Amino acid sequence: MGKAARDEPGRRDTVQAKANADRVPQRVHVRIYTDGACQGNPGPGGWAAVLLCGPHRRELSGYEARTTNNRMELRAAIEALRALKRPAEVDLYTDSQYLRQGMEQWLPRWKRNGWRTADHRPVKNVDLWKELDRLCTIHHVRWHWLPAHSGYEENERCDQLARAEIAAHRERR
Questions:
Q1: Catalytic annotation on 149?
Q2: In a domain, 122, yes or no
Q3: Out of 3, 143, 150, 167, which could bridge 7 as a Cys pair, Cβ 3.0 to 4.6 Å?
Q4: What's the predicted TM-score (pTM) here?
């Protein structure tokens, strides 16, 4: 008669794979909402992110004196991903088509083309795109677009925080 089922190589491999999977820590799931704002383009800018993980909530925001709206959108996503302490499954919500399309459509082409656009010009904000690309090798990120100012609570909160950064720095001058 043949070998017992438990001795079959395929079965043994499957059992071992399941045992190994039980030892691998599961990635935590995080929802991130981001926004960037700029007064003038270029001008003073703010960025913000809201991170949600189970019952936990964290708000981040920052300021740059002379920047663009697109740089602030990128900075918000970068700082949110940097804030994660370990690799995570991330759903990132943004009202920026520039950010979402950049990550989902343009980035692979830019990398193939040596960080040049389809018309052979250097990619704008390449420093931030490269950093965001690096962070996405650590985290598994799904990109979602939300229309701006459409009543999405966390997106509205990000907008408030980003604008508050600009206002706070304007008052300090």
A1: yes
A2: yes
A3: 3
A4: 0.84
